[in-house]
Amino acid sequence: MPQSVHHSPSAAPDRVLFHNTSDTVPVLRLRGLHNSRLAPVTLDIPAGECVAIVGPSGSGKSLLLRQIADLDPGQGSAELDGRDRMQMRGYEWRRQVVYCQAEAGWWDDAVTAHFADLDAARVIAQRLGLPAAKLDAQVLELSTGERQRLGLVRALLLKPRVLLLDEPTAALDEQATALVEQEWQRGMQQGSSIVLVTHNQEQAHRMGHRGFRMEAGRLEALWT
Ligand SMILES: Nc1ncnc2c1ncn2[C@@H]1O[C@H](COP(=O)(O)OP(=O)(O)OP(=O)(O)O)[C@@H](O)[C@H]1O
User: Fold this and answer.
1) Is the beta carbon of 37 within 6 A of some atom in ligand 1?
2) Exposed/middle/buried for 182, CB within 10 Å: 0-12, 13-18, 19+?
3) Looking at CB atoms within 10 Å, which of 12, 80, 101, 202 has the fewest?
4) Does any ligand 1 atom lie closer than 6 A to the CB of residue 217?
5) Predicted-assembly ipTM surpassing the 0.90 threshold
6) What is the pTM of this model?
7) What is the 8 CA–ligand 1 centroid distance (Å)?
8) Within 13 A of 172's CA, how many CA atoms are on the CB side?
């Protein structure tokens, strides 16, 4: 029986899930990162690599992404390109380690208001299969899948070093999912890294250079 995520997994010894064995500095380095609901995670993610995480609902997958993005209080260390999180301002870290939640927040009725560079947004939106007119729409007029892709456009425009994706294609059909995955591949070819949380096992295997399962706040390696 899986244990409840509400016990205190942080009391468990740190488990080394993957250490970078090459001389190159990983894009993301986690050392014993944990909080009251997450057991310590030690993980290096090199440039151009995707780590896929699956696991039951409520097991702590989103909590881990939030912890990596430094959105919640926690312990342990995180480094980006060899630079410790503590040496950076929160916004500086989060501009490069971008948490893309399943349903992005929208603070204006107009889609355009969410994009500083509309031309660049249109280019990426088109690659994700979104008609150009969607950028001129009202947020309320968009379908869930359109909102999801526009949320991803917002994240991609930041040119993140690490993209933390939380159920990013849950509302998309196969064709749109393929376009989105192509865009992630493009980002990885340019040296960014991805942590992908998904309930779609096939997607996890398609995208994940390594795969993990979250169970009651603990990350277990599936394939490496
Ligand atoms: N701020 C919070 N306060 C209390 N409990 C929380 C808080 N945030 C998350 N939890 C709990 O922690 C557990 C893990 O939540 P999390 O959102 O990480 O699950 P998940 O694995 O991403 O699930 P899903 O696949 O359904 O998205 C859940 O039981 C959730 O209710």
Assistant:
1) yes
2) exposed
3) 202
4) no
5) yes
6) 0.90
7) 14
8) 26
